[in-house]
Every structure is written in C-alpha cells, then in structure tokens.
Write a structure and sequence with these properties.
14% strand, alpha/beta, 212 residues, 10 helices, single chain, Arc Repressor Mutant, subunit A, 2 domains
Amino acid sequence: MIRVIIADDHAIVRQGLCRVIALAPDMELAGEVKNGWEMLERMAGDPFDLLLLDLTMPGPHGIELIKRIRKEDKDLHILVLSMHTECQFVSGAIKAGANGYLTKDSDPDSILAAAREVAAGGNVIAPELASRLLFEPESVSGQGTWGKLSEREFEIFLKFAAGRAVSDIAADLGLSPKTVSTHKYRIMQKLGVNSVSELIHYAYSNKLLNPP
C-alpha cells in the first residue's frame, strides 16, 4: 500500500486529490498539510511513501522546501503538482530533489500513473514539459527578465511577491535579514522595479504566482 501525503494550500485541490487517491486500491491517504511549516513538522510523524507537493504554499515552499525535505529523508518519493509550466520551475524542482513534475490540470489517470511510477522509484515529467526542457533549453533560464535571477534570488523573489516580510523570509531560509535585504536590492535591480508593490505586480503579470 502506497501511503500518500498531500501538501497544498487550497482546500479544493486537496479534496480533489483525496478523491483521486480514493480511486486507487493500492493507495491510502496518510495526511494533508496546507503550508510549508506543517509539511516540515509532518516529516517527524508516521512514515509515508509519497508526497504530492504544490510549489507555492505559505511558509517554506518551492525549491527551498524540497531541499529541506530531502535533508530529512533522502529516499522520500516526491511528485510535484503545480500550476507553473515555466521551465525554471520544473528544472529547479527536479534539481532540488523532486522525482516527478505534473501540472495541476493533469487528468486523474495521469496523476495515479505518475504517482505509482514515482513511488516505485521512477521519474516522471509531464510530456509537454519534458519536450520543452529538451527542445527549448534556452527557456530553462526563464522568460523575460526574471530569467536573470539566480536560484536563491528567484526563491526570495517569490516570497516577497507573496507578501512575506524580510524577517519572515530570513527565518524561512535560515538567512540574516541583512542578507535578505541585499538579495531584495539585487532582485529589484534585475527586474527593473522600484518597490515591493511593483515586484508583486510583476510576479502576477508574468503568472509566477496564483492570483489572489
């Protein structure tokens, strides 16, 4: 039996995935979490086999969360289910330690097939995303100016865009507030924005965050 944890901040998505898992006789729901802190706490709980992970939750999330999970359990099977189709998200998640990457509009059969493949130790990327990674390598660096950001800058950029304060981001990532502020300055320079409100607008305009 494959024990599954669902990590997503949207209740309707969690409910939908619960129904999908209920269709599989070889899977059972081991729990649900709605933010990065709950996910990290859950790592100390009862063992499970597969994590279905959203990339943009409150608290530690995305690449940083995958890296933290990997420090706790290097063998856990992680399947990302995300709205983001940009190559930088896909490539970053896989490099951080995810075993698979699907989009949230994947049909239930595809999700179950990918979940089984990942739980068995395989690797899965949605075909349309794999094709882009293979045949459009230039897109891995991102679209528009946000492709100029380093992996760490991109992670911090998403947190600022989600409304996180400097002190909160520093705590999330284990950095000093001064270091986060330095990253913020460089990010704003690279993106050509002059305020956090412009940075947030930039993120939504480029579809890098879920709409509020």
